[in-house]
Design a protein that fits this description.
This protein has 8 helices and 14 strands. The protein is about 25% helix and about 25% strand. The N terminus is likely disordered.
């Protein structure tokens, strides 16, 4: 049995054309990075931090553009994602028409696919997995109910592009669905404790309670 670690330090890095958030989770058992936007690899080099695991909320290019570099530069790093690398899931070819070379992407290989799994343990922390498609078919949220030194005793959700502070993920990409996304948020996110801190893929953090009561996409006031 794995002994779960109860302390964690969380740092946010924001980078790339779309100002995408990445979260560095440091604990006694090692270091986990959630998502890999442009500049994340250089940021980690500057900090001198070795990454043991890279968890990907989904494969849209702005969340994985530095994944190959991180996998290459951190020899012990295991990459875990819902789905395997796929040109359709990354949207690189679609976005190249909008932002040109900024959408170029080096392919990488996931060490473990998480489709169908409900929990994982990453360097001593046990996450519940919430599959919430609609923004992207492979969107995963990573939920941590245990204590951490940022929010002692407070649950945490690393939500990717599912739920934002005052917004939700875009659904106008191929395979997007507003109905599917809203249903998933209501069934799998809003059912979490209201004090759950949501660390999104873009923008500032929020809580489940704040979004349930004030997010116009969830209250019907948009």
């Amino acid at each position: 049995m794995i002994e779960l670690i109860k302390t964690m330090k969380i740092e946010c890095y924001t980078g790339g054309f779309f100002q995408t958030n990445s979260y560095l989770l440091q604990g006694d058992g090692g270091n986990t990075l959630i998502d890999a936007p442009q500049g994340a690899a250089e940021w980690l080099r500057g900090k001198g931090v070795e990454i043991n695991e890279l968890l990907l909320t989904h494969l849209h290019h702005d969340h994985v553009i530095d994944a190959a570099a991180i996998q290459r530069e951190h020899s012990s790093c295991r990459v875990r994602s819902h789905s395997a690398y796929d040109d359709d899931l990354t949207l690189a070819s679609l976005l190249r028409h909008a932002v040109g070379g900024l959408a170029d992407l080096e392919s990488f290989e996931s060490d473990e696919l998480l489709e169908g799994q409900t929990t994982i343990t990453s360097v001593g922390f046990e996450f519940a997995l919430k599959h919430v498609p609609g923004h992207s078919p492979d969107s995963l949220c990573f939920y941590l109910a245990g204590e951490n030194d940022i929010n002692p005793g407070t649950p945490i959700l690393f939500g990717g592009d599912v739920l934002f502070n005052g917004g939700i993920g875009r659904t106008d990409f191929p395979n997007g669905s507003t109905e599917l996304l809203l249903d998933g948020i209501r069934e799998k996110v809003l059912t979490l404790p209201g004090d759950t801190v949501v660390y999104p893929g873009h923008g500032p953090e929020t809580t489940v309670a704040d979004e349930a009561s004030g997010n116009p996409f969830l209250t019907g006031n948009y």
